[in-house]
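=== RUN LOG ===
request id: a7f3
mode: sequence -> structure
chains: 1
length: 87
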Amino acid sequence: MAEKTTEAGRPLLRVKGVGITGRALGLGLLTVALVWFIAVNTQSVRVRLWVPTVTAPLWVILAVTAVVACGIGWFVGRRRLKRAGRR
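=== RESULT ===
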């Protein structure tokens, strides 16, 4: 029986019979750490944007920052894939 591999030829991590890639494992750990960090930081803070100053719970600021960072990462990754396809 041949061992299953990812598209890049790397073996999958086997957890209770389910194959998990390193990327999925890393993303899962990052998500757990992010949720924990947000849950711990619940006090209100003032954030100065370019012009206005906003007062909001720190978890809201962290969640918005995480969503924006994921969007930027997705956009940059997508551009790299398009560039690599042109070469």
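=== NOTES ===
Residues 1-40 form one domain.
Residues 2 and 11 are 11 Å apart (CA to CA).
=== END ===
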